[in-house]
Amino acid sequence: MTTVPHFYSSTLAFSYPGSSHPGMKALAKRYIPMTRSRDLDCGLTLVFAHCAGSHKEVWEPIIETLFSQCSPVIREAWSLEWQNHGESANMNCSVIESGRPGVSITEWEAALRYFVLLKAQEGHCLVGIGHSAGACAIVRSTMVPRCAQMPYVAIVIIEDAFGTREAWAEQGELLQNSLDLVMKAIEKRRDVWADRKDAHDSLSKRQPWKFWDKRMLDLFVRHGLRDALPFGSDQPTVTLACSKQGEKAVYADNNNEPYREASDHIASLDRSFPVHYVYGEKEDVIPHSLHQRVMASRRMASIHSLPGAGHFAIQENPNAVVSCLESILKDTAEHLPSRYKL
């Protein structure tokens, strides 16, 4: 177990039922507040899911600040990693290389659902927090069997990548063209560097990384890249942990049906269940019209606009994300049954 400011952390590797990739495992990183002096059976357990191309540690600046500012309402936090991203890409290397490029979000969903149902059964009071594709994974993890209870007490959707069926019916060609442009940009992206310093220097001058908070870029270089030895070479390099082919596959995942299903499911959730919606003030990757469609699909528990942030809200303005989450978590904690309160 390693010690870092404001939290202790440790990583759990686990297998899960329903995998379409035999032998694949998932990683979940646990964070416990260092300052916590009361009963750890109380308070909220936060479950984080990152965006495509990222890694589980991306949430650490946000977790650290939340622990320092509203530790009394938080029991612990977990960050789950997509199986072909970050450290998980190394762990699952042989499984990934033996199959088709990419790991569907439905695979991540299976691991996430198994994990949160287990934690809920252990008595944890869970709040799911997802960014972009991670928001889709969080929402899809609520698609539980009828015999199972909802594992979360609330979920927070940050800069989602959903497109409602109505939006696809009206703007399908435009949306597909946008996805095609994203995939072409990924294909042209540089993905090999001499070392991490070379990668940092290069990325800091290019979009979208040059707009990121310094802490987020540093974390990406540390956890979003992996060491590599190119075939036929004895010169070590670093490359993307989630390969370009793996990231491109996200934007063509089952013709984007998992994301439309997620938007359907949000609308179908019980109206009393708290869904908090957070989006970036800047309209860059996701048109605000798509966000408005999702917001109109149900009564949201709260809606927040993040200043100075676009689709990469977590990376661009983590402090604004913290402010939103602090408000949401304190409100959620106030409405918990007394047995969960400190």
Automatic annotation (TrEMBL):
It comes from Obba rivulosa. Residues 46-322 form the AB hydrolase-1 domain. This is Alpha/beta-hydrolase. The keyword Hydrolase applies. The keyword Hydrolase applies. Keywords: Hydrolase. It comes from the Eukaryota. One of its GO terms (molecular function) is hydrolase activity.
